Amino acid sequence: AYERRFPTCPLIPMFVASDTVNEYKSEDEAIHVIERRCKLDIDAPRLLKKIAGVDYVYFVQKNSLNRRERTLHIEAYNETFSNRVIINEHCCYTVHPDNEDWTCFEQSASLDIKSFFGFESTVEKIAMKQYTSNIKKGKEIIEYYLKQMEEEGITFVPRWTPPVACKLESSTSHSRRPVSPAINIPDSATKEGLNNKEILNTSSSPSEPTAGTPDDKLDADYIKRYLGDLTPMQESCLIRLRQWLQETHKGKIPKDEHILRFLRARDFNIDKAREILCQSLTWRKQHQVDYILDTWNPPQVLQDYYAGGWHHHDKDGRPLYVLRLGQMDTKGLVRALGEEALLRYVLSINEEGLRRCEENTKVFGRPISSWTCLVDLEGLNMRHLWRPGVKALLRIIEVVEANYPETLGRLLILRAPRVFPVLWTLVSPFIDDNTRKKFLIYAGNDYQGPGGLLDYIDKEIIPDFLGGECMCEVPEGGLVPKSLYRTAEELENEDIKLWTETIYQSASVFKGAPHEVLIQIVDASSVITWDFDVCKGDIVFNIFHSKRAPQPPKKDSLGAHSITSPGGNNVQLIDKVWQLGRDYSMVESPLICKEGESVQGSHVTRWPGFYILQWKFHSMPACATTNLPRVDDVLASLQVSSHKCKVMYYTEVIGSEDFRGSMTSLESSHSGFSQLSAATTSSSQSHSSSMISR
């Protein structure tokens, strides 16, 4: 019935045509593999098609029919725009393990949009719309062709049997079919698990054990009470993986619930699940994660300013974690604690989540293996897109995804502001597809309407800051005082590995000796981004462009070019003989930055060449009516000993191919958030449309 939709299908209007590219049939006719190139007329705006320069898109589809194992695997990927958009789809028809008269159907797909002429969001919406409509019509189409076959008198297709000449050879070679060499499991156990379909086909053999033998079964009450619904095949996979761990793994064997999470994360592919589980067990041992709740106490800064905490449970009995991300000073936490301390705190939250799941399983009398996370984004803005902070977030996501799979039951994202799609674009590629399906996002006050928060959380426990009546003891967050910030030197003395050691650099700025950083740009329309703190004194920040490279600093000339001090280095690149307007030009208006300020910004380069970021000592202006300095100026100058300033800075260049169409992710906005916003200063708009803000 499935094959009847080729070479084209009137029930799928966008499926215009298809051509066979490759075809293979085995001698015994058990295997039939056919590869087609399909032509699709995507329902997209005419303008988008014109910009993309195509009227049709092409996909390659490979269908693998295995009559021996009674499976049909369908793989598809896009050929058009494959360097910009990656689409992978996999479908599978199999025989149900419990009833061979039933057919199982599974389908999964992934979409990764790297860039698409600035229309990434539009393409994502179109792809999701097309995919959703195809899923809805899939059953309707297969039933249409089944009915068509019945009208033609075809109501039964005989099961494949090997040719007579091959039967003897097949029966003797069947027991020698290869199994995965990576798992040292007896061959009989292998046949009981993932190869359940083979057992159904050869169940008449008395010598071959089946999944129903008493030694291979978990207690039904135990499964229902602690593990949930498992098919015989899934149960067999769990038993085999646990048995393998007991035979080979030296150390603590995880509980069945934890093993099951890894199996589910890899769709019960035992090889893949075993690999990530072993990596995770090694990681837990190396970092003593099993003891983190008993041996590690979070620093006071986290307890005061990390706006997250546990809050009762949802309607399904899952523990509920509330995170007020919009009220959290992510930059301040990273600067005060470093990435490692934040990561350790997130790990302790996950360990606490596992413990609460076990408790709720006992309380509610049914298996609860995951928790619900409620994230309030009220107050989220461009400050939260501070790039080192986002990089720290991505690393935390990576560690959690690898070691706590299938622990997030549902993620409720509330009051998502306009800047949220930018953050989502940055982090979503690092989140597992199965996890992404559990995200529910509400903009504004949509969470208060139908399909909102009340569908998942009892009214009595909705937090007060969301309009509920329940007092929530989650810290309110707020700006971390700069007095709690630690320098790279301080963190190094504590022997803690932090982002600030590798990302931030410190520099000293003297009167008459600015600090300068050279950035070479090959492609126009690249983006230079920066983030710096003025730790001491007042400075003037400039950006210059030159077509020729400045001479490298002379390390033997302390007074003129390069100064190294305990508080940071000082490098000067602009030669004294260079003239502004002739040898180099200013591409941004100067920005005066006061002591204690944080500045983030970006500059879209107009030309290739050499760009120089400069931090210069800011001299106090004299009084306009007299040549004598004012009292305030004298007092201010005395505060800067030896006319020295200090900055800690981080810069990065984003290539034009990554930047195109993503300006909103680069322009800085208020560095504070909600009622905590600090004053913002923007430079005059240059040709490069850059913006600087404090």
TrEMBL record:
Residues 1-154 form the PRELI/MSF1 domain. Residues 500-653 form the GOLD domain. Coiled coil: none annotated. One of its GO terms (cellular component) is Golgi apparatus. The keyword Phosphoprotein applies. It is found in: Cytoplasm; Golgi apparatus. Keywords: Cytoplasm, Golgi apparatus, Immunity, Innate immunity, Phosphoprotein, Signal transduction inhibitor. Pfam families: CRAL_TRIO (PF00650), CRAL_TRIO_N (PF03765), PRELI (PF04707). Residues 298-474 form the CRAL-TRIO domain. It comes from the Eukaryota. GO terms for molecular function: RIG-I binding. InterPro entries: CRAL-TRIO_dom, CRAL-TRIO_dom_sf, CRAL/TRIO_N_dom, CRAL/TRIO_N_dom_sf, GOLD_dom, GOLD_dom_sf, PRELI/MSF1_dom, SEC14/CRAL-TRIO_domain. Residues 169-189 are annotated as: Disordered. CDD domains: SEC14. Its main location: cytoplasm. The keyword Repeat does not apply. GO terms for biological process: innate immune response; negative regulation of RIG-I signaling pathway. Interacts with RIGI (via tandem CARD domain); the interaction is direct. Interacts (via GOLD domain) with SLC18A3; the interaction is direct. Interacts with SLC5A7 (via GOLD domain); the interaction is direct. May play a role in innate immunity by inhibiting the antiviral RIG-I signaling pathway. In this pathway, functions as a negative regulator of RIGI, the cytoplasmic sensor of viral nucleic acids. Prevents the interaction of RIGI with MAVS/IPS1, an important step in signal propagation. May also regulate the SLC18A3 and SLC5A7 cholinergic transporters. This is SEC14-like protein 1. It comes from Fulmarus glacialis (Northern fulmar).
